TrEMBL record, chain A:
Gene3D superfamilies: Periplasmic binding protein-like II (3.40.190.10). The keyword Calcium does not apply. This is ABC transporter substrate-binding protein. The keyword Signal applies.
Automatic annotation (TrEMBL), chain B:
Residues 73-290 form the ABC transmembrane type-1 domain. It comes from the Bacteria. The chain crosses the membrane at residues 16-39, 77-98, 110-132, 169-187, 208-232, 269-289. It comes from Luedemannella helvata. Gene3D superfamilies: MetI-like. This is Sugar ABC transporter permease. PROSITE patterns: ABC_TM1. Belongs to the binding-protein-dependent transport system permease family. It holds the Pfam family BPD_transp_1. It is found in: Cell membrane. Keywords: Cell membrane, Membrane, Transmembrane, Transmembrane helix, Transport.
Amino acid sequence: MGAIRSRLRGFAAAALSLGLVLGAAACSAEEPKSADGKTTITIQWFGSPGFDQAIKDFQSANPDIVVKSENRGQLRDFQPLLVQWLATGSTQLGDVIMMEEGTLLEFLQDPSKWTNLLDLGAGSLKDDYLPYKWENGFTADKSKLVGLGTDIGGLAMCYRSDLFAKAKLPTDREAVSKLWPTWEAYAEQGRTFKAANTGAAWIDSATSIMQPYIMQNSDTWFYDRDNNFILDSNPKVREAYNFGLKLASDGLTSKLVRWTPDWDAAFKNAAFATVPCAAWGTGVISERAGEAGKGKWDIATIPGGSGNWGGSYLAIPEQSTKKEAAYKLLTYLTGKDGHLAEFKEKGGMPSTIAALDDPTFANATNEYFSNAPVGKIFGASVKTLKPIYLGPKHQQLWENVLERAMQAAEKGDLSADAAFAKAVTDGRKLATG
Amino acid sequence: MTAHTGPPRRRSAAPYLYIAPFFVLFAAFGLFPLIYTAWVSLRDWRLVGGDRGFVGLDNYAEVLTDDRFWNALGNTFGLFLVATVPQLLIALWLANLLNRKLRLQTAFRMGVLLPNITSVAAVGIVFGFIFADRYGLVNWLLDLVGADVVDWRGSRGTAWFAISVMVDWRWIGYNALIYLAAMQAIPRDMYESAALDGASRARQFWRLTVPMIQPTILFTIIISTIGGMQLFTEPLLFNYGRIEGGPLGEYQTIAMYIYQRTFRGNTEYGYGAAMSWLLFAIIIAFALLNFSLVRRSVRGSST
């Protein structure tokens, strides 16, 4: 009796340990079920690309494909996951992946984990896209196309007309656009605005001018075309850096760090009068400034006239076993119909020429921004755009190195020269490491 | 019961199987990653870019000359001291209060644990608002009473203070409950005889309670050390999810730096593994040091 009981106990313990092992093993082997011959593909995205309606439309046109749409939070949460999944060949990795421009540029250095879209027939789509958007999806030797474009970030200057009225500046968007044909003129208006003592700053942060200023005035930033690190010798970057910090030392910036709760709250508190905004940024502003800001914001052209800030791509991992179906979805979402659906849903600006010219986009106005003709303003900013070479670690060099250093200088933690020297040292380490 | 008649060999298998689940799990999720990490740390391995082969101890040599590693290590120890010392002292005081006869005794005892079961991410986000530089609650209150507002992320000291508040808010209650459990095990009659001998409450606390629960204090110190060395989420969320810990890395901890080098930047898997191993060695050394120091003081005070 006792022997039987202890043997039973032994079995129980053995079964328990076996169960634990099997349980642990089972966690990593999940297969999407292909019931009744349908192919299930997974798309993983971050931020708010506005894919919902476009995916619904795609589903009804392709009943044999089931799309699983996974929201993966913010870019900074998704990118490390993506790196891990690709490195380990994880089954959690989807079939269509959204990548921010900067992320894509990093993967282009080691494109082996991604499918060549040219092999799936993407070559014929060349003329559909804005040239720079198309070019950026390629590896350096142009043999492999990794990503096709979703949105782009055409640039404008968003401003608060109520603060402008207070400072006795013109409030009409045409007249405001004429105030600042150049960045110098923009700084000049800033000084006039400051003299009027409205209690608000002219611009949110010194770092906000970097993207548009450099995009307009240089065709390189951190790297030359051979991927040498040139931050210390790129005159236009230093010029933009000095210009931004001059705005700060003149007391025109409100010294806020972008994407922090303080920055968010500053929109509600009308703490600054202007902010360079990309097409996707109109949503960023209306979310933060809220109902109280409706009709008080307006959109004028950006000093210098053109510019692009960010934008994303879709790509297919090499390990995907359903490339045909994935490619169908990818080309739908990055095609004219997909782009227009995404624009209607979340305001992402199309990167296909046909969608840009479509009245849905071209004649669009934004109610929140005093019915500003966003299609016209943002559309014009990218038509004259000169492509700039960004290079592999651009996004991190900007966000984690130069922008940080510039913020330290703006706050006065470091001198402008010391902060720049630090950015050069840290940047070189990152770029060549 | 007839268990003694069973064959002895059969009976001896069961205990091993009972404890097997722990060892199976430990081997899979503890030992294997440890050894695998050691192996990775000897290679120049990028998550993006692949394994570039064996490099011996190069990664370790690089870590030792990496000033950002030392900066992060200094921050980690600094934050550990700034957070843990007040944390354990307040926990001790709180446990002493809870050890008295109170109304709603259970409610209070459970209540102190509530911060600990709150999600650390939620704590981090809320404290991020409380310690926001411009529109934060603390600065608003400071402004209300006419004091100067504080640029919380602007300097090492203020950032460390804010992060420590976050850590302590979560862990004081937890440690207080552990102390309370130990205090309850002290026989009441010892206090009665101390009181008869004329010892005041404070004297009873320092001369009786504290020495009696010293093994528990040692336990909390070691647990806090391990937690403190691995501090990650609080400073990360304090800086709104930015891994660099301030413009000049003023509050980047070692765990954050490991993460940054491994999963961001050049995704240096091998380098991150080398740092992880050094962190492991540091934690062990530090725990042993603590252990010997506290044990010496236990002996010193009980003789």
